[in-house]
Structures are given as structure tokens and as C-alpha cells.
Design a protein that fits this description.
A hairpin with a 2-residue loop joins strand 1 and strand 2. The protein has a two-stranded antiparallel sheet. With about 200 residues, it is α+β, with helices and mostly antiparallel strands. It is built from six helices and four strands; from the N terminus they run αααββαααββ. The protein has helices at about 5-10, 20, 25-50, 105-115, 120-130, 135-155, and strands at about 65-75, 75-85, 165-175, 180-190. It has three domains: about 1-55 and about 60-100, no CATH class; about 105-155; about 160-198, no CATH class.
Length: about 200
């Protein structure tokens, strides 16, 4: 879907420096907030079966019930959004789920840092420095624990019977082991299937 040139011109009418576009109160963040809130209101209208202010909703048994506030953590920091509610609490938003507190991609960054050997404290400091987001150690632990089952499943997956090409290598890394940092070798095996997949 193309955005009209007039809309872009209006958004950029007060633009003077990159902070106006990308900053904490910049256009991108404000636009993302406005779009999320508009989409949530559209989802509620679809759920209720009528638009806001429509007479059909007056004696429908369920109607709008104001907004709740939700703080989302994303790649560009924290953002407060207004989430619409209905009287019987049957509305289940899809774009931002009821229990969702983080945007997609944020957990991937935590997992990536954890996989690189960063401690929970280091991850916490890194996220605060880069994104201005204060993340609790419990959140980081929950995110890394969520993928541990998936990692274990991947580790015990059945292997092919034949790999025509196998490459073995070792990578020397500093690993925290029993409270001290030691230089250890991480052994890597890369196999190519008959179809050419790694």
C-alpha cells in the first residue's frame, strides 16, 4: 500500500534534524503508536460488530468500555499505548496480544546476546545503553528459558544417514565456568546433505 505524498509532506512539515524523525518523541515512534492504537480500535469494532458511536451498539449486550494503558518494549525503547476494552472482557486483540509486553524481534536480541555468552547483567546493561529500556533480570531469564526446550529438541533431532561433505572446526572463546572466565574451544561440525543444505 503506497502512502500519499501529501501525508508524508504533512508528517515532515516540522522536520529539522534526525532527532525529529528517529528520537524518543520522533515521528516514527508517534506514527507507530498512532497506527497501533487505530488498528486496536478497528479490531474492537470488528469484534463488537459496529463502529464507535453507532446506534446498533446501544443495546447489544456488549459495548466499548474505555481504554487501558499498556507499556510495550520495542527496538526503539518503551512506548505507552491505549488499548480499548469492552464491557464483558471478551475482546482479544491480535496486533498486540493481551499478555504481550514486547515487540517481535526484541526477544531475539536477548537470545542472541545470551547465545554469545553474555551474562544476564551484561544483557541488562546492554539493552539499557542501546534502547533506554530497563529490563529486569527475571524477564531476561524467562526469555532465555522459553527457548531452552527448542534448543534441546534441536540438539537431539535425528541426523541424516549420509553427509557427503563435513567440515570440522574449533573456535576459541572465553566462557564463564564455575565463577571464572576460561579460554575454551567450541567445536563446530558443519554437514552438507545430498540436497546441498547445511
Amino acid at each position: 500500500m503506497a502512502i500519499k505524498k501529501e501525508v508524508i509532506d504533512e508528517l515532515l512539515s516540522d522536520y529539522k534534524n534526525p532527532e525529529d524523525l528517529l528520537g524518543d518523541k520522533g515521528i516514527f515512534k508517534e506514527l507507530k503508536k498512532a497506527l497501533l492504537e487505530r488498528a486496536l480500535n478497528a479490531e474492537l469494532s470488528d469484534h463488537l460488530g459496529y463502529e464507535k458511536g453507532d446506534q446498533k451498539g446501544q443495546k447489544s449486550g456488549n459495548s466499548r468500555n474505555g481504554h487501558g494503558s499498556k507499556r510495550l518494549i520495542g527496538e526503539d525503547g518503551e512506548m505507552d499505548i491505549a488499548v480499548p476494552r469492552d464491557r464483558d472482557a471478551s475482546f482479544d486483540p491480535q496486533i498486540v496480544k493481551k499478555d504481550q509486553r514486547r515487540f517481535d524481534g526484541f526477544d531475539d536480541k536477548i537470545i542472541s546476546m545470551y547465545a554469545r555468552g553474555m551474562s544476564v547483567r551484561e544483557i541488562r546493561g546492554h539493552l539499557e545503553e542501546l534502547y533506554g529500556v530497563g529490563v529486569s533480570p527475571d524477564l531476561i531469564s524467562r526469555v532465555t528459558d522459553e527457548v531452552m526446550d527448542e534448543v534441546r529438541d534441536w540438539q537431539v533431532r535425528p541426523l541424516d544417514e549420509i553427509y557427503p561433505i563435513i567440515i570440522f572446526d574449533a573456535l576459541r572463546v572465553n566462557i564463564r565456568d564455575e565463577g571464572t572466565v576460561r579460554n575454551k574451544a567450541v567445536y563446530l561440525a558443519l554437514g552438507f546433505t545430498l540436497e546441498g543444505h547445511k
